[in-house]
Task: inverse folding
């Protein structure tokens, strides 16, 4: 493991958490029919988090690699579980309006906001910025 691997993973991890806990970003990017970048969708936000980070098996890989501390895992585990168990309305992951108006999704976002706040308090300034900065998706389309 190199420190570059760890830093890259953590940057992607914190960015995913930021995206998945920002209702404002989701409303703007998921509902914007003018952009063509597929990243800005519910499906891709979930895939970026669950698939791209290698966190299936309850974060075993990044914890074993030393990329995530046990304290950080304890902070995010309830939100992670809620997110993992979420099913979009009518199982239509492309109906962004339905997802954004789903009380279950809004509850997960609320849990995520609390989680993000707790996690931010444990991070250095560089990582805290990645986790909490406002993302302008228009910079990426």
Result:
């Amino acid at each position: 493991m190199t420190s570059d691997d760890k830093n890259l993973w953590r940057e992607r991890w914190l960015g995913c958490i930021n995206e998945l806990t920002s209702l404002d970003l989701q409303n703007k990017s998921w509902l914007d029919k003018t952009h063509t970048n597929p990243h800005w969708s519910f499906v891709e936000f979930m895939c970026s988090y669950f698939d791209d980070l290698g966190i299936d098996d309850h974060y075993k890989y990044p914890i074993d690699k030393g990329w995530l501390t046990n304290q950080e895992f304890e902070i995010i585990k309830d939100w992670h579980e809620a997110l993992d168990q979420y099913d979009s309305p009518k199982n239509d992951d492309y109906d962004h309006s339905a997802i954004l108006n789903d009380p279950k999704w809004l509850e997960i976002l609320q849990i995520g906001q609390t989680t993000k706040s707790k996690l931010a308090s444990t991070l250095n300034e560089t990582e805290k910025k990645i986790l909490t900065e406002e993302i302008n998706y228009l910079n990426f389309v």
Remarks:
- The two ends are 33 Å apart (CA to CA).
- The chain is about 60% helix and 0% strand.
- The mean pLDDT is 95.
- Residues 3-20 form the longest helix (18 residues).
